[in-house]
Amino acid sequence: MDVREEMLNLIRNRRAGFSLEQPFYTDADFFRLDLDLIWYRDWLFVGHDCEVAKPGGYFTVQVGDYPIVIVRGRDGEIRAFHNSCRHRGSRVCAGERGTSARLVCPYHQWTYDLDGALVFARQMAEGFRKEDFGLKPVACETTGGYIFICLAEEPADFAPFRTLMAPYFAPHNLSEARVAHETTIIEKGNWKLVWENNRECYHCAANHPELCKTFPEAPTVTGVNGAESDPEMLAHWAKCEAAGLPSRFRIDPAGQYRATRAPLLRDAVSYTITGKRAVARDLSDRVALDRIGTLLLYHYPTTWNHVLGDHAVTFRVLPVGPQETAVTTKWLVHKDAVEGRDYHLQNLIHVWTETNDEDRRIVEENAFGIRSPAYEPGPYSEMHEGGVIQFVDWYAAFMESRLADSATSHWRNVA
Ligand code: FES
Ligand SMILES: [Fe+2]
To answer: How far is the CA of 197 from the centre of ligand 2 (A)?
Structure first.
């Protein structure tokens, strides 16, 4: 049986409310289908616009087989390109980030302007047309301080996401923030296990002693059900919205992204062991209220986020292999906050550094057990794992429609 049919059958026959069959978490061909049908088609969060604050600022990212470079042009626009030279294909930018007046391929020095145009190619034949060999563009959008790219030839409309997200993020002014610290960890587990673990706090009490000092494990916070009837959430939204901070729970009809604001425990204002602020200076000058809790945003398949009053923590998920996922965490502070004066780095990053490592171990143990021939899908807790059920349903629905589509177009081509 063709791998597409095999996956489609398993999706159509899956037991709702149960984890997926083993190959979804382990199989190289299934992983390839995830890349083709989700990662190469959907909008992906890659980084923040404040990371390329000036013209010529660039950073690179690897999505499956695609090396990509994101660069701010002289006109202030942020653009993304395939990081593959139009001469013989070398990577043009090999480093993770930098600033450059032009992008120069290290192999034979073909030179591209910041808008991707080829401006210099030494001693090519008469009649060589530089305008035919610019860097290939990748769709790129920015909103609320976030840069998204899409590898599809015809990207889905970005506007609905922007409409939902922009009002929630505007007051926090992330475009003017600064990344105080960044880490990337590799978790030896399929990207879906990373997400499943993220979408519930059923595991928090036993595994996250640091985070549990300030972050509520209530499913109304982590999950997608019941927030609207949780009196604490309602009171928090009313308070924050009165102060001009959009807060209530919103999710897109397909379930791919949601934003909501949640209170932290007791009088906590930040993710520190004491619950006290980690950064003396507020993240944004536009937020007057104290105790705004955390603004939560997820967007499948690449990002979940916490925006607090004093800093923000953002996460980027990228698949490395069927059983390997890179998770990049960034701590953002006000651009004028000074380390040593306004914050101590260890204090700022401690809770999520520990939490990430705890989650890495959880995901790796989960992956370990799933590799057993004895593994079979197990039931999620409806009370605590509603968010996981929602993620898996989103994944299954997306994959099913795309597998069905591609089967139709395949047969059309054959005919
Ligand atoms: S491959 Fe880039 S200049 Fe030759
Ligand atoms: Fe966790």
So the answer is: 6
pLDDT tens per residue, range 336-380:
999 999 999 999 999 999 999 999 999 999 999 999 999 999 999
387/251 Cα distance (integer angstroms): 12
> Measured from the CB, is residue 368 less than 6 Å from ligand 1?
no
Task: Name the pTM for this structure.
Answer: 0.97
The Cα-based distances of 274 to 42, 209, 271 in angstroms read 39, 12, 8
**C-alpha span between 315 and 313 (Å, rounded):** 7
Nearest CA among 374, 384, 380 for reference residue 16: 380
Residue span(s) of the chain under CATH 3.90.380.10 come to 177-370
Residues whose CB falls within 8 Å of the CB of residue 113, separated by 6 or more in sequence, listed in order: 102, 103, 119
Nearest to 129 by CA among 86, 187, 160: 86
Residue 88 in contact with ligand 1 by CB distance below 6 A: yes
pLDDT of residue 412 exceeding 60:
no
Ligand 1 contact via 110 beta carbon (within 6 Å): yes
Q: How far is the CA of 132 from the centre of ligand 1 (A)?
A: 15
Cβ–ligand 1 distance for 245 under 6 Å, the answer no
How many angstroms separate the CA atoms of 113 and 312, rounded? Answer: 33
**For domain 44-150, which CATH number applies: 2.102.10.10, 2.40.160.50, 3.30.1300.10, 3.40.640.10?**
2.102.10.10
